Amino acid sequence: MTAVEGASVKQSDLRSRPVRQKGRRLPAPFSLRCGALLIDYVLLISIVALSTLIARLLGGGARSAGGSAETFGILIAVFAAALDLVVLPWLTGRTVGKWATGLRIELINGDDITIGGALLRHFVGYPVSFLPLGMGFLLAAFTARGRALHDLIAGTIVVREGTFAPVNPAKPHYVSPEVK
């Protein structure tokens, strides 16, 4: 029997994760985190806005068709939210906004975020971060590691992609993930 036939594949190996180098991780700047959140928000709200626009266009004489379009749009937005805020972070460590801004969500110890961690972070941590007038999000601007309240709740940190290799401690040098 060959080694290929005898090799067992773990369930965790079936998920496709980007290959990343290990090293000192740079916490994500607050401005990039805000940009990533804005991209995710615009993506989800645009689905609801488009469905509402279609519902209003159909609503002239066909009231039920307009209501159905609006309901369908809300269902698609809920599905897209689950995909963007839970499934993508679990599989890749990124939401669409974090992918666009070059950021990644991981556990504080450097491991990949789990599906439970993504659920906890986005569907428990985000509402809690919103409660005190959004101060839970603002916390990321004032903590040393750039962790917001939802990061503290889920045990996560948002980092920049790539590794940080200081050539000279006085002048840090950023190394791209493509450089080996």
Description:
The protein has 180 residues and is mainly alpha-helical. It has one domain. The protein has 7 helices and 4 strands; from the N terminus they run ααααβαααβββ. It has helices at 3-6, 30-58, 63-92, 96-101, 115-130, 135-142, 149-154; strands at 103-107, 156-160, 163-164, 174-175. The strands form 2 sheets. The protein has a two-stranded antiparallel ribbon. A two-stranded antiparallel sheet has the order 3-4. The longest helix is centred in the middle third of the chain and has 30 residues, at 63-92. The radius of gyration is 20 Å and the shape is elongated. The two termini are 35 Å apart.
Please tell me the overall pLDDT: 80
Biggest sheet record: 2 strands, antiparallel
Uncertain regions spanning at least 5 consecutive residues: 1-9
Q: What percent of residues are in strands? A: 5-15%
Number of domains: 1
Fraction of residues in H or I helices: 55-70%
Computed structural class? mainly alpha
Radius of gyration: 20 Å
Order of helices and strands, N to C?
HHHHEHHHEEE
**Ends apart, CA distance between termini:** 35 Å
Number of DSSP-assigned strands? 4
- The tally of helices reads 7
